[in-house]
Structures are given as C-alpha cells and as structure tokens.
Amino acid sequence: MSRPFIIPLIVACALFMENMDATVISTSLPVLARDLGQNPITLKLALTAYVVGLGVFIPVCGWVADRFGARTVFRTAIGIFMAGSLLCAVSSTLPAFVGARFLQGMGGAMMVPVGRIIIFRAVPRADLVKAIGYLTMPALFGPVIGPPLGGFITTYFHWRWIFLVNIPVSLLGLYLAGRFISNTREDSQDPLDVPGFITSALGSSLTMLGLALLGSHLVPLGWAIGMTVVGVAILVWYFRGAMHASRPLLDPRFLQIPTFRASVLGGSLFRIGLGSVPFLLPLALQEGMGMSAFHSGMITCASAFGALFMKSIGPRVLKRYGFRSVLMINALLAGLALASFGLFTSSMPVWLILTIVVLGGFFPSLQFTCLNSIVYADIRSEDAGRATSLASVVQQLSLGLGVIIAGMTLQLSNHLQGHAHITEADFWPAFVVVGFFSILSIPVTSRLPHDAGAEMARRS
C-alpha cells in the first residue's frame, strides 16, 4: 500500500475519534445537561474546555514533535485522549466533566496537528491534496456514525457509554502508528520558548473561558468580562513581541505568506460559522422542535453524507477552477447553507430538513479540503512544525469561538423574545449570525493570487 494512502488513513483514526466524539457529545448535550443539573446552553462550557486544552498545548506540538519524534508524540496523544474519554464516562458533576474534557483537549492538541506534520513530511507535495482527501474521508464517518450512535445510546441506554466508543479506535490507532509511521524529527534542536508557551497558553485560556462563562451564571458577569479582556490583552502583547523574536513558539510572520494567511485568517472566520453547528443544530432539533436524541442524531448525520459526496469530486473542482475561485464562491454557498438551518420548524417536512442538512455538509466539506491543503502550499519542510502550531491554534480557537458566539446569540435571542425556556423561535438569529461569519472569509481569500496552489491543484 502506497505512503500517500496508508499514512493519511492512520492519522484519520485520530481525526475520526475527534469528530465522532464531538458529534456524539453534541447530540447528547441536552440529556447530559439535565443529568448534571445544568441548563443545556451552560454545557457549552464543556465543549469550550476541550478547545481550551487545545489552545494551551497546540502551540508546542511542532516543537515537541521535532524534539521527541512525530510517532512518539502521536501515540502519546492518543493515549491521553483515551484516558480523558474514560474520565468523561465516570464524571458525575459539571467540574469533573469539564476537567475530563480538558484532558481530552490535551490529547487532541497533539493528535491531529502532529498527524498533519507526519503527512506533510511523508507525502510528495503534488500528492498532498489527494492525501488530505484520504485523511478526511474516513474522518467524515465520525459525523456519520456519531449523531445516531450518540442519540441511540442516550435514548435507550445512558450517555456515559458514548465515551467508551473511543477505546477500540484508540487502540487501533496506537497499533497502526507503531507499525507504519516513522519517528521523524528535525535536526534543529532550538530550545523551547518557555515564556512564549506560558503567555500564549494563559492568553488563549483566559479568552476562551471568559467568553464561555458570559451569561452562564456560573461566575459573576464582571469576572467573565475581566477574564476575556485580560486574555485578549495578553495575546496582543504576545504577538507584538513575537514579530521581533528570532524563533517564537507561534510565529505571526508566517501570515505574510499569502496562501498561509488565506487558510488561517480566512479559514478561521469560516470555522467560526461551521464550529457552531455541532452545538446548535442538535439543540434546535431537540429543545426547539421536541425531537428525541436518536431522531435528532439521524437527521444531523445527513450532513456527513453531503460531505462524503463532495470529497469524491473536490479534486476535480479544484483542478478546474483553482483555489481562489473555489474558496470565494463556495464560502458564500456554505454560509447560505448554514444560515438556512434557521428555517427549520416542527411543521417542516422531514425530507426538506434532510435536504438542507445534506447541503450544509456538501459545501463546507469542499471548503475544508481547500483550506487544509493550501495552508502548506508555500511552507518549507523545516518550517512545517512551527507553521502547523500557529495554524492549528488559530483554527481550533475559532471552532471554539463558534460555539461561544452561537450560545451567546441564542441566549440573547431567548432574552429579547421574553421566553422562559428555549423555544423554536430562538434559533434562527443564531444560525443567521454563524452563516454570516462564513461569508466574511471571502474578502480574505479574494486577495490570493489567481495561480495560488496551482501545483497542489494539478493545474497547468
């Protein structure tokens, strides 16, 4: 079996776990919240805790992979993620569950970014789009299996069992990585930027936690606002200093590369919109429209079928139109598709809801393939680790920010409409807002050169 095929499939085991875990939790969130005695919107804190774990440890993933070897770090990350899953299964309080999710985030911070480094260094650049396609195809089965599986287990058994699904997948990933992946590392042994690590971790953690706690009533409002302001100030201070450092942990100078900038900055706006969907859509179907967790999961998984179909034609679309045109036009279509989820009502035919959800997976899938491929178009092999650290931390924080923005918009809509509980009418403003964020990525990607990523798209 060729390297452009087997290595992406091994890394896909990790991405499969992450995607399935996220969709399973999102589908089970309303039932899980009631079992823990919490408001369903408050449970966005559990989703955010995972992203905080990512934000803390993603910045060092490139340095750690170069220092200890990509295979060693990749397998260790899978083990940490598996331990976090077991702790989630036995949690009985919100703080314990949030802590277990943070531990999962520590593992996820290394799994997928280091996996991308492995692929970038093992696969020829001309085969990178194909390799990314192999990577994401199996990973898309997570959203296919996750919602109905999580809904079935939650409805007919208990939500605690959903976290045990990760165990056999983790064991398979550990075995395959040990057998097929080389323990590659860079010769450069630069010392770890410890002040940069502490500063970036503190800034991203305070920012994400502060935003997640806004309106949650778990802490006073002033505390949440103060955490957010201090976190943002620390991040701004860090990046201003990093512009003049020799080899900072997160190097903002990579953003001077047009293809990298378009993928990271434009992609972050797109991911804010898409990152909210696993949180918002199951909540709308269950709390707004009164569906069971299983029924909700069966509808939510339809988006993955649209994504799978797009993966089969994505390389041909890129070859025909190029990265710039596809990123611009498809962002508009994807944003409209996400906003259209706000049209759902309990009286709408199920076949029409399913059609809209399929389109909501169809267009974002192509966008992800483009963004995840073009990020490496002009990156040197020796810079792959540091570039991946910056790209991954921005991407993951934007996904978490999507959950926070969706939750805040939903809370505001509920308050302004004067509803005592979440109702069907509260959701459409949130879907419109997250769809608009996806469309906001167009001005960033429009600045790409017309021939950007031509080699990767196999265009003459």
TrEMBL record:
The answer on whether this UniProt entry bears the keyword Transmembrane reads: yes
Q: Where is the Major facilitator superfamily (MFS) profile domain?
A: 7-453
Keyword annotations? Cell membrane, Membrane, Transmembrane, Transmembrane helix, Transport
Entry's Pfam families? MFS_1
Which species does the entry assign this protein to? Silvimonas iriomotensis
What protein name is recorded for this chain? MFS transporter
Specify where it is mainly localized.
membrane
For this protein, the parts annotated as crossing the membrane are 43-65, 77-96, 102-119, 131-153, 159-182, 194-215, 221-239, 260-281, 293-310, 322-344, 350-375, 387-407, 427-449
Q: Which PANTHER family match?
A: BLR6921 PROTEIN, MAJOR FACILITATOR SUPERFAMILY MULTIDRUG TRANSPORTER MFSC
- Subcellular location as annotated: Cell membrane
Q: Does the keyword Iron apply?
A: no
What InterPro entries does the entry give? MFS (IPR011701), MFS_dom (IPR020846), MFS_trans_sf (IPR036259)
- Membrane-topology annotation of the record: Multi-pass membrane protein
